[in-house]
Amino acid sequence: MLLASGRDWASQALRELGAATVRSLAATALESRWAVFYNGGNLAVGRHGFNAVVHLAMELKAAVVSIDRHFPRGTWELHLERKFPLYVIYGGPEGPSRGYVRKRTDLAVAFPMPPGAGHHSFWLVASRALGNTEPVVLHLGFDIHRDDVGGYFFVDDYFYYRLGRLLSGRRFYISLECPTSPKLFKSAVASLLDGVRNVERKFEKPRGEPPEVWREVLSLVK
Description:
Blueprint: E1 2-5, H1 9-16, H2 22-29, E2 34-38, E3 43-45, E4 48-50, H3 52-60, E5 63-67, H4 73-82, E6 86-91, H5 98-101, E7 108-113, H6 119-130, E8 136-140, H7 157-167, E9 172-176, H8 182-196, H9 211-221
Parallel strand pairs: 2-9, 5-6, 5-8, 6-7, 8-9
Antiparallel strand pairs: 1-2, 3-4
C-alpha cells in the first residue's frame, strides 16, 4: 500500500494495479522523488524472497537505514552478498550475537540500542546514520514507540515528525513495518508525513532518559 508520495497520481496508479506484487509496488514508488509505503513484509517470488528495501537501494545505488526493534536479518544477509551501505538501529536484546554482527563489511554499521532508550537517544543515532545522504531507503518500524505494547523503548510521535523534516527535500523511500495498533500507526505516520511536508506542529517535550542509557548510546556513536 502506497501511503504517500511526491506525485499525486502515484496513489491512483497503485490502486489500478489491483493485486499488485511488492515488486510492482517498488516500481511504482520509483516513479516519484519520494514515497512512503507499507508492503506487508517481504513477498516470496519463486524460490527466493523479494526485499523491496534492498531492491530500491540497488536500483538507486542508495544506502539503507533500518530503524526497528527487531534486527533485519534478511536485509543484513543481502547486504553481505550485494555490498550496499547499511545502517541498522535495533533493540540490543532482539539482536544477533556479536560474532554474527562482526561478519559485516566495512559498509555496514550496527547500533544495538539499550532498553529504556527514547527520543533523544534514537534521534542522536538516526540523525547520524541519515546524515545528508541522498537518495536513501529507510526501513522504519513503530515498535520503538513508547505506546507499543510490550516494547521497551520510549520514542514519541515527535521523533517521526523530526525524521520527516530531516528527509524533506531529499530523494527518499520509506518502507513501514506493521504496527501493533491502528491508533499508533495513524498517529506516527501522520507526524512523519507532516514533517516531510513541513507542516508546523507542536509536540510535548520529549521525556528524559536514565543517565546510564544515555552513556551507552553515546558510546555507540563515538
